[in-house]
């Protein structure tokens, strides 16, 4: 069985695959689409993170493909219907990076509310601008959590310990589950009306694409702060840009973008916007976790054992 790994994953996962006598593993990152289409025909499994785009033509070229393994959560870079049509399993590693993504969300919330990235740049450029970087506290503030899944749930548990109220929206969870972790399940409109900070934790799917756009920003409190450590495109970037310029939105903390890397993205030019280059899952612990899980998922598929599909 041949496994092609096209985005960097932790060596721990590679070791698990290589320990199998009849498994060959090739790591080839930074392939062009044409190179991937040419290579994939020889392989039984493809392991990716978020960079490789597994489009229909890649899937069709994968004559021997049995499984596409995503070392992470989001499968929006895989054409899942095309894979399903060909009987190819699409598996992910849904739990291994949830703490990393949750902690990054909280780090971004505090960095934004205390202007830490801006102050860091200012001081390192020789300035001493104490009054310019007046912040806000989170104690007693309301966080709106859109998408109360694994990461939204972990964020909720932690911010409750910091004295924040949490209003959550998720059409697929129950008021009882939300209450058990300290949130009130409510409508999007109540979140827009009351939240001081809004963080999104949904997948990027047709029903969530641009779910926060101009009409939603208009319903929000003046001075709301926005966090997106989930997927670029859940929040409409053009609408966010206007909402910040108009003063409606006081700040935004973004780890993900509609186009990555976000070359030429005008949001990067605004002082109110702080950014990281899709680092939500980038901890040593998370990368080991997801690499091990996805290696085990691929081996299970080869052995005909159960695989948890994405
Ligand atoms: P999850 O599947 O556990 O939770 C997603 C939640 O969104 C589910 O509870 C689902 O019911 C809810 N949802 C679906 N449609 C919705 C809608 N229209 N409105 C509100 N809620 C809706 O996923 P997760 O592990 O919590 O991951 C959340 C997001 O974070 C995903 O987009 C994932 O790709 C992303 N992520 C990003 C990073 C990063 O590096 N920045 C790391 C890990 C995960
Ligand atoms: C994910 O969905 O798991 C994230 O995008 C993290 C990643 O792949 O690095």
Automatic annotation (TrEMBL):
Pathway given in the UniProt record: Amino-acid biosynthesis; L-serine biosynthesis; L-serine from 3-phospho-D-glycerate: step 1/3
Catalysed reaction, written as an equation: (2R)-3-phosphoglycerate + NAD(+) = 3-phosphooxypyruvate + NADH + H(+)
EC number from the UniProt entry: 1.1.1.95
Organism domain of life: Archaea
Keyword NAD carried by entry: yes
Keywords: Amino-acid biosynthesis, NAD, Oxidoreductase, Serine biosynthesis
Biological-process GO terms, alphabetical: L-serine biosynthetic process
Keyword set includes Amino-acid biosynthesis: yes
Single GO MF descriptor: phosphoglycerate dehydrogenase activity
Homology family: Belongs to the D-isomer specific 2-hydroxyacid dehydrogenase family.
Protein name: D-3-phosphoglycerate dehydrogenase
Origin species: Methanooceanicella nereidis
Shown stretch of the complete protein: 1 to 310 of 526
